[in-house]
Amino acid sequence: MVLAAVTDFTREAQHQLRDTSHFHWSAVALLAFVFYVYAVEVERQRWDIILAGIALWAMDWFNEVANALVLHATDRAAIWTATGSTSYQILIGLNLEISMMFAVAGVVFCKYLPPRRTFANRAWLVLGFSCLCVFVEILLHAAGVFHWEYWWWNVPFVPLIVIFGYGTFFAMAAYVHDLPDNRRRLRVVGALAAIDAVGILLFGPILGWI
After folding, report:
1. pLDDT beyond 90 at 137
2. pTM of the entire structure?
3. Using one digit for the tens of pLDDT, what is the confidence trace for 195-207?
4. For the chain, how many structural domains are there in total?
């Protein structure tokens, strides 16, 4: 007896997964925007902000690979699924537009960090940005282009989304930003990038799970 079936929105996302026929030129404009954001920080030599931004982006890639593995394990649905018009569907819950947004989200977040570093002001900003992002997800969910399947990661039970969906992202950005030197920042970002690269290659081209 079949206990679960692949959801309709999962099939919709799978249908356009890594399909280049959906490409449109807005992707180029988004990429140029990301380049500009980082170019401004390079010009200012704010390597703390640059590396914090990359760290947040790397955290998102880790989550997206894990999310795609949930679909492989359940053969029903990922924890979150992205559908709708996109230039390129990278993974089941990640399209190019979402990825470009996360590429600059860490830089934006760091602009709000007070120069005086305290646990309280970092924690409140992490919480605030996380709640804002979850609110946007709720709107996307209502619009029918972002989907949750499981009760523990869904409305109205959103604490896990706040904490693990976004809180870890912004906390990592703040942590990397506040490290005392670029050598330590590079070690953290390098480790995150290495983990992502291994996960993408292993579960993607090698095993074909994502």
Report:
1. yes
2. 0.93
3. 999 999 999 999 9
4. 1
Q: Is residue 66 part of a domain?
A: yes
DSSP the chain: -------HHHHHHHHTBT-GGG--THHHHHHHHHHHHHHHHHHTT-HHHHHHHHHHHHHHHHHHHHHHHHHHHHSS--SEEE-SS-S-EEETTEEHHHHHHHHHHHHHHHHTS-SS--HHHHHHHHHHHHHHHHHHHHHHHHHTSEEE-SGGGSSS--HHIIIIIIIHHHHHHHHHHHSSSHHHHHHHHHHHHHHHHHHHHIIIIIT---
Provide the token pair at 131.
Answer: 């709640």
Rounded CA gap, 114 and 68, in Å?
A: 36
198 burial type by CB count under 10 A (0-12 exposed, 13-18 middle, 19+ buried): exposed
pLDDT at 2 over 70: no
In a domain, 2, yes or no: no
Inform me whether the pLDDT recorded for 4 exceeds 90.
no
Contact 99, 92 (CB under 8 A): no
d(CA 54, CA 44): 17
- How much is the average pLDDT of 72-100? 96
Question: Residue 83's domain spans which residues?
Answer: 8-206
Q: Is the pLDDT of residue 1 over 50?
A: no
Does residue 169 belong to any structural domain of this protein?
A: yes
